[in-house]
Design goal:
This protein is mainly β. The protein has helices at about 15-20, 25-35, 155-160, 165, 325-335, 355-370, 380-385, and strands at about 40, 45, 50-55, 60-65, 75-80, 95-100, 105-110, 115-120, 125, 135-140, 145-150, 190-195, 195-205, 210, 220, 230-235, 240-245, 255, 260-265, 270-275, 285, 290-295, 300-305, 310-320, 345-350. The protein binds fe (ii) ion (FE2).
Length: about 400
């Protein structure tokens, strides 16, 4: 019964216990309670992050949180000692595992009582079907296994804020288990297009990919000449993953989108530039295998290959091609992510770029000795001859036209 407004002086006294029940972030509280290091930065070298004993997995681990992760997604790293294994674990959030280093196997207990075991090495990727119990084994006695686990635990834990419900829930999801072949590195290739942008998008449905570095990709020239790509639907999930490749001597077009895309370099070397509309300076992130970062919400980002080989990366985000989940992701899945800003999309075409972008890349390429193969797009001698005053001030971007979101 409310006592507000009574004459009893103690009835209007602050209830300190109640006052503290505000501004709660159950995901963050859970992470802090796990007792492992929490790293927070723009991006991380996941191969070198300090890990600590993680009782939940009976292994080691750390959180690799990023400033641009947004509200829905997060990442943690699991490290399994030589010849070691994790405790069997299950949870009501999705997780995509990218093997950073080491060889081992994963055992998954399916809702029908069967188990699946699959072996993997560096640069493999697998998804755990929702709420299935799983266990990770290091298959060698030589070196630790390190796995990047991109997940949507923030949604799940913040929505229910009941850890028993999230980590000890008897509900099963047999429709998400996937076929036997989906645990053996096989899958199903499909494609779709949308009236917004009729370019065909290739999608591979599976639970496990042996090697993202050699997996077959398909042409996606609209993101830059020579660009190749494939999207994944993993364990019928709401999370999305895709792999893209940048050819030698080239770079991708800039674009922007929702927060939470965890970009992992797979192979090759290069850097990314990021900027908000109105910025005068670029944020630069160098990368090679092991590096992961998340472009913040609506921040332009652009990936540059500077090495003598193709460069690949893996991007994991919320909103799959099957279940876009949020309207911003639906727009991306419909093709807005590779449609020009001037046509209502989110992509910055090469001809609309600030000249500093190509000039910086040419300077970086000079250091690595790799020749530009973009001379047919840019007047490179003219860009290198620009006076200093042409290379300062607000980074130029075209006026966006139409519904960008
Ligand atoms: Fe992106």
């Amino acid at each position: 019964m409310s006592t507000q407004g009574t004459d009893n002086p103690s009835a209007n006294a602050p209830d300190t216990a109640r006052e503290s029940r505000f501004l709660i972030d159950p995901y963050r509280d859970w992470a802090e309670g796990e007792g492992i290091p929490i790293h927070l930065d723009f991006g991380h070298n996941l191969l070198e992050l300090e890990t600590g004993t993680w009782d939940r997995y009976e292994a080691k681990g750390c959180f690799a949180h990023t400033h641009g992760a947004g509200d829905f997604m997060a990442n943690y790293v699991i490290e399994v000692a030589p010849s070691g294994k994790t405790r069997p674990v299950k949870h009501l959030y999705e997780v995509f595992c990218f093997v950073l280093a080491g060889h081992g196997s994963t055992k998954v207990w399916l809702p029908n009582g069967e188990t699946r075991v699959f072996e993997w090495g560096p640069k493999a990727m697998f998804a755990i079907p929702l709420n299935c119990q799983y266990q990770i084994f290091n298959g060698t006695s030589l070196s630790p296994v390190r796995i990047s686990c991109t997940n949507d635990a923030p949604i799940t834990i913040n929505l229910y804020h009941n850890l028993d419900f999230v980590f000890n829930n008897p509900c099963t999801f047999p429709e998400r288990a996937g076929q036997s072949k989906h645990f053996e590195g096989e899958g199903d290739l499909t494609a779709y297009s949308h009236s917004t942008n009729p370019v065909k998008r290739n999608v591979w449905e599976t639970n496990f990919v042996h090697d993202l570095a050699s997996f077959k990709l398909y042409e996606l020239e609209e993101r830059g000449k020579g660009s190749t790509n494939i999207s994944f639907i993993l364990a019928d999930g709401t999370m999305h993953a895709h792999v893209s490749q940048i050819p030698k001597g080239r770079y991708k077009k800039a674009h922007r989108h929702a927060a939470g895309t965890h970009v992992h370099a797979i192979d090759g070397e290069g850097y990314s530039l990021l900027w908000h509309e109105g910025d005068s300076e670029f944020k630069e992130i160098p990368w090679r295998h092991g590096f992961m970062y998340t472009p913040p919400f609506w921040m332009f980002h652009q990936h540059f290959n500077t090495c003598p080989n193709p460069a690949r990366y893996l991007a994991c985000s919320l909103g799959s091609r099957r279940y876009p989940f949020i309207s911003l992701r639906r727009k991306s899945a419909e093709g807005a992510g590779s449609l020009s800003l001037t046509q209502g999309g989110r992509q910055l075409e090469y001809e609309d770029q600030d000249p500093r972008i190509h000039r910086k890349w040419l300077e970086e390429m000079k250091k690595t000795g790799v020749m530009s193969e973009m001379g047919e797009v840019f007047d490179e001698p003219a860009i290198m001859a620009l006076p200093p005053e042409a290379l300062t001030g607000v980074i130029s971007t075209p006026r966006s036209n139409g519904p960008a979101i």
